[in-house]
Amino acid sequence: MSVAEYIILFLAVLVGGGVALYFQKIKARYLGFLLSFSGAYILGIAMLHMMPIAFQHADANPGLWILIGFFVQLLLEQLSGGVEHGHIHPHQHKGTAYMFQLMAGLCLHAFFEGLPLGNYEAFQDAHAHHGHVHSDNHLLLGIILHKAPAAFALTALLLASGYRRALVIACLALFAMMSPLGAGLAAWLGQAGWLDHGVQEKIIAFVIGSFLHIATTILFEAEGATHHHLPWRKIPLIGLGLALAILSSH
After folding, report:
1. What domain range is 230 assigned to?
2. What global pTM score does this model have?
3. What SS3 state is found at 43?
4. pLDDT at 58 over 80
5. Which of 181, 44, 156 is nearest to 102 (CA)?
């Protein structure tokens, strides 16, 4: 990743959270529309861009790591309450324990999410002769499209739960740093020779599992927990997200 891409990844969270700070009356359904698009795009990126790399070598055992990533994300959401996919459930007077629990789940998720970005260019070279070369910009875009709504949800949740504005901004900045930190650590380990291709493939498979959980949760919960249908007004956005992922894979 270039320095500019690290900055963009960081700013995406600040922008998403900043919208919630200054436009707190934005209707939740608008966030749902963006999430539907981003969920479909993330699903497409995971299936079309990341899986060919993860399954390139049988000795990496990618299926196991996808399962691990899926269920680790499930456990992290027990801490975060589903803020990763736009859930906003205010909790008044929860105190610092609730805030630390929420931030632990979100920050671990964001850190893991950034790991594949740090050494993705090396994988483009390694897999070039197999025809699976895709720019890491597609993965970066997918993460940005996911993190900006998550930052909005985090900020709106903390404000609605009665936390001080300065503390909310500090939490937002911490959340913004985690994916760039993950990417930076992976890049440093790769340059130092401590992150071989087998380990990188496991990391990618792990993040695929996380993406699959997030994307399917977004799509299946498009109308909330009490509805079990896909709203027609969101189908064009879901189709657009999938189409963008498909087009970018060629």
Report:
1. 3-247
2. 0.88
3. helix
4. no
5. 156
